Amino acid sequence: MTTLYHDSDADLSVLEGRTLAIVGYGNQGRAQALNLRDSGVSVVIGNIRDAAHEEAEADGFEVRPIAEACADADAVMLLVPDEVMPQVYAEGVAPALRPGDLISFASGYNLAFGLIEPDPSLDVVLVAPRMIGVGVRETFVEGRGFPCFVGVHQDATGEALPRMLALCKGIGATRGGCIEMSMHDEATLDLFTEQGFGPAFGRVLMTAVELLVGAGYPPEAVLVELYLSGEFAYSLEKMREVGMMKQMDFHSQTSQYGSITRGARFLAVDAPIREKMTEVLEEIRSGKFAEEWSGQQEQARELFERIRAARDAMPMTEWERRAREAFGIGDAG
User: Fold this and answer.
1) Which residues of the chain form beta strands (DSSP E)?
2) Structural domains in the chain, sorted by start
3) Over the stretch 37-46, which tens digit does the pLDDT of each residue have?
4) What is the DSSP letter of 8?
5) pTM higher than 0.85 for the full model?
6) What is the CA radius of gyration of the chain?
């Protein structure tokens, strides 16, 4: 049965008199640190000397070397990228932690696939916002909050759950609602969205663009019609608010009739899409993807850079630039 937590389930006083170290001051680190401070939590930042270090100081935080920040804290939120997290944890975090300390992860990736194994004497929890860092801050300031995946991975003190929920309340997650997940399930859902759903959706979009441009329609008009106008994004927002089927009522009857009657023609693609998605899911769940990305980092990064270069050279990139410039959209505005 699904377990959900809200504001009434969490008690911020659990963190009174305690110091919280946030390791990493990127998009999530900055947003969560600001939210926690606004919630009355004592926060220190652990970070290397870089632009993020300077930003944290400009925001009024005390910034220390990672090991020093963790040594002086009762709880640590590890908010650095997955690919560098094992090294950061081994060199700067783990040696500074004491029995009974709490370590919180915003992604289950490294624990799910055995890349980090915390000491049994620690409380280990998952606090994984389903929102980008900017949104974590903006929704908190607006008083709305955001959904979050949470879980107790290791309960050494018997107090891991209330401590985890206090962190969630401090960042604003319990306002939106927290759903209990294991590290492995959180990592799997996250990776599948990126590797299964995202690419499948992207391929459908690219097929439509290539078809319409090939049929003689101006690329700028095609991209505006499909997504650059913002209408599609608006429909997705309405889908979130009222449901996928109900949001159809916001469209014309011509639109609804066409979608319903022609939609049946695409049922035949379900089987091949499901087959490919199943392959992706099994690679994730078995740890094969983690082994490829984290176990062969140098080769994976080389391939990654080649793919990025090829992406930037695609006609679609230039079509988008021209369309955004023509209509004053985004940074082209």
Assistant:
1) 4-5, 19-23, 42-46, 63-64, 75-78, 102-105, 123-129, 148-154, 178-180
2) 4-181 (3.40.50.720), 186-332 (no CATH)
3) 999 999 999 9
4) G
5) yes
6) 23
